[in-house]
Amino acid sequence: xxxxxxxxxxxxxxxxxxxxxxxxxxxxxxxxxxxxxxxxxxxxxxxxxxxxxxxxxxxxxxxxxxxxxxxxxxxxxxxxxxxxxxxxxxxxxxxxxxxxxxxxxxxxxxxxxxxxxxxxxxxxxxxxxxxxxxxxxxxxxxxxxxxxxxxxxxxxxxxxxxxxxxxxxxxxxxxxxxxxxxxxxxxxxxxxxxxxxxxxxxxxxxxxxxxxxxxxxxxxxxxxxxxxxxxxxxxxxxxxxxxxxxxxxxxxxxxxxxxxxxxxxxxxxxxxxxxxxxxxxxxxxxxxxxxxxxxxxxxxxxxxxxxxxxxxxxxxxxxxxxxxxxxxxxxxxxxxxxxxxxxxxxxxxxxxxxxxxxxxxxxxxxxxxxxxxxxxxxxxxxxxxxxxxxxxxxxxxxxxxxxxxxxxxxxxxxxxxxxxxxxxxxxxxxxxxxxxxxxxxxxxxxxxxxxxxxxx
Length: 456
Description:
The structure is a single chain. The protein is 85% helix and 0% strand. It has helices at residues 2-5, 13-42, 49-85, 88-123, 131-142, 145-160, 164-188, 192-215, 233-267, 270-306, 310-337, 339-343, 350-363, 367-382, 386-407, 409-412, 415-455. Helix 4 (88-123) runs antiparallel to helix 6 (145-160) and helix 6 (145-160) packs antiparallel against helix 7. The longest helix has 41 residues, at 415-455. The radius of gyration is 21 Å and the shape is globular.
């Protein structure tokens, strides 16, 4: 029954994408609450050092999530393609190999970060005042790395089978636990940043148990089986080559956050690092619906591409791109109109609000092009075009944003850091989507014509 219900080769493409995207979008929004709620609570503590210290750990946490994406976003699209071909056994081998990689990478990442956390935090922009807060949060968070790897890395395999509501419940469960435990640990038990970290890893642990329970149960189309877990070089290469795109997204995000924090620390001090923490928090929330829609489209695109149904693939590309562009314009308008209201969700300090409002407006001034970047890159990943996805994940952040972040402050001061982000959104987004149109969408039109002729 599940196999029939989750056959993406039938029915309306927009309806199918929205059926998957709606719970995925809600799941993405809920997922952001893990870190954003921590920042909202810590922003209510006296001063801004707790919030700034937490912000310094974000690049490291992003790298850890990148390892989860390396396996999850590398393996899940392959599972969709194999399902479209009717090769469910191979899809299970891909999922089993991905799980083994998640465990190995999780252990190595935990040990590596614990060994170098002090010099790494200072390199990432910590000062003597903010280091104790960053160190306290990161040390506890690293103890739960395996929970993060399992919950974040395996959940795409639930979504790729069409069980988007189950995938939503994965992050929903964790978010509820986090929201409940945060005030208890942070305020009632007076644990501060350590309490925020402990609440987060306990929440991720609940999500990890939920994912494993479903994928080993009878309701799943593709099951996580011990016999599918031994690694094979052929499968590992496919998983990692496709997953590198998602990994480089997180890695380059971390790179830019590090460069931004270090530059702002030099040009403006802890206050501006705190402002960037708030701006990044708002960005995470605003981008989640886009990620939800593009992730919802991925299983549909991959399944139909694997089945040779190119008309449906092109229709899915048009629909998902239109939705994210319309949404991004609406989000841009809200941010331009109500920046102070959004900033005050994270702080009551007038000085931080004064700095944050113009920073937020500059950062999001060209946000529509960011949505084109995310849409184009997601399409490349869904269709297994690893090289294209990797290139554009590196282009915007590593080759445009980071250099501009270092150079523009010499002309614009601290505002140059936020101008650099806007410029990279415009240049990177335009380049990615234009390339996708000419390399994927238009050539697929010829395949669509051949498909139509063959059916007649």
